[in-house]
Each structure stands twice: as structure tokens, then as C-alpha cells.
Amino acid sequence: DQQVKQNSPSLSVQEGRISILNCDYTNSMFDYFLWYKKYPAEGPTFLISISSIKDKNEDGRFTVFLNKSAKHLSLHIVPSQPGDSAVYFCAASGDTGGFKTIFGAGTRLFVKA
Amino acid sequence: DTAVSQTPKYLVTQMGNDKSIKCEQNLGHDTMYWYKQDSKKFLKIMFSYNNKELIINETVPNRFSPKSPDKAHLNLHINSLELGDSAVYFCASSQDGGRGLAEAFFGQGTRLTVV
Fold it and tell me: Given this model, what pLDDT does residue A2 score?
């Protein structure tokens, strides 16, 4: 039972354009959401997060939007750069019968120069 | 100066063997985790420790036993290794009382191959 879903396994974007990575969740008890980036042979690194009391959080080129009614969040990268090519994991946490962070399967982003 | 370091990076071993993966964090965090990334690339939590106390123990075979000698270390011991244990194992730490409300810092991963 996947509580956090990233339905696009991959996404290809031209350099300079916007990358939009999507994430859906099923458990309404999640109240904190995070995005991680992962390069090959490395561990995931934290990118940006958002609390359920907000609907938007911005950090430089990265913006996360949260739509609680739709149980959907998205990560926007503008402008996309070749160095952004990586796997992006969406994660959610909250009191779901024990506090734990649930990760999605990841979306591989390719930014073409 | 590596924040979360785990050793070894690669581990190839035969079925039935017992092996350990070590993890250390120098961030002063209060919570440490073990995650497993399987062949489908899902990152699934296995265990978490808050101040040396086990707080999350997912449905993991009891052949897997975490050990936290102190707040900065969380080792993973695996008995009687099976082919299905082959995966990448990530250690992580965070400063959030184990509530998952802060970003986690991950180690580089240990690729375990059971032959």
C-alpha cells in the first residue's frame, strides 16, 4: 500500500525551462512533506520541505506547492539546469500510528543542455 | 568531514553468512535511521532510534538487529543472509525527536549483494 506516490518514473526537460515533479499521498495524517534529491552512488540529500499549515514554500529556484484538499504536492524547479539531473524523492511524515517518514518511489529528472 | 558515514560501501557475501554495517553521525542529532532501497528503488524505513531508544521497528525479519551503543552510532547486524536481502541500505540521522519533522541527513549507502 503506497501512501506516497510519484506516478512519473521519469521526466525530461530542456535547460532553462521549468521542471514540475508531482507527488500524491493518501494518508490525511501526514503533516510535513519533504523533497530529496539523489545522485547515483550517493545518499539522498534534503532539498526543501513544507508544513501542512502552508501551501507554498520557496527556496531559490525550488518551490514546493501543497494542495491538502487534493492530497497533492509538486516541486517546481525554475530555471532547470543540467546539474539538476537526479532522482527526486517526495516524502511525507506525521502521526500515522507512529511517527515515520514515508518515501515515494522517486522521479528521475533529465535536464538536457 | 562526512556528516553521516557508513561502512562498508560495498558488501558481497554468501547466503547464510552474518554481516554488519556500521553508521556514525557527527552532527549531534538525536535520531538515527536505517532505510532499505530495494530493486524497485523504494526507500523503506526499517528502524529508527531516538537517543539510543528504538522507536520505529517496521516489519523486518528478526534476522535484522540494530544496535545503538550511543547517540552517534547505529549499526545494523544481519544474520543468516538471504538472496532477498540484496539491496542498498542507507543510514540517516535527524534532529527532530524521531517525529520526522526535520530533514534527514543520509549516508552514502551500503550496497549489499548476497550470492
Answer: 81
Q: Please name the member of B44, B56, B90 whose beta carbon is closest to the beta carbon of A43.
A: B90
Out of B41, B90, B101, the one facing A32 most closely (by C-beta) is B101
Preferred mutation among A49, A99, A108 to probe B, highest tally of B CBs within 10 A: A99
**Rounded-to-integer distance, Cα A104 and Cα B44, Å:** 9
**Which triple of cell numbers denotes residue A62?**
525550488
Q: Do A87 and B103 touch (CB under 8 A)?
A: no
> Is the CB of residue B106 less than 8 Å from the CB of residue A44?
yes
Q: Is the torsion defined by CA of B27, A47, B52, B50 positive or negative?
A: positive
Give the model confidence (pLDDT) of B18-72 as tens digits: 999 999 999 999 899 999 998 878 899 899 888 888 887 787 889 999 999 999 9
Q: What is the DSSP letter of B70?
A: E
